[in-house]
Amino acid sequence: MARATTPTWLALDRWAEIMGIPPLFFNQLYSEFYTHGSECGDVWFQWMWQQPDRVGREDVADAIREAEDRLKSVVGYNLLPDWISDERVRTTRPARPELYHGTQGNIRGQLKSIQTRWAYIISGGQRKKDLLEAGVITTKVAGTVKDLDGDGYYETVEITVTSADVGEITDASEIHVYYPGESGEDEWEVKPIEVSISGNTATIIFKRWLIVDPDLQSIMDAENIDGDDDNSYLGTVDVYRVWNDPQSMATLLWENGCEDPACAFDTQTGCFRVRDERCGIIAYRPATWDSTNEHFDYVDYAVCRDPDQLRIWYYAGYESDSPKVEFPRTQLDPFWEKLIAYFAAALIDRDVCSCNNSERFIDYWREDLSRTGRDVAHQISPSDLDNPFGTTRGAIEAWRKINSPNSDWIVKR
Question: What is the pLDDT of residue 143?
Answer without folding.
Answer: 81
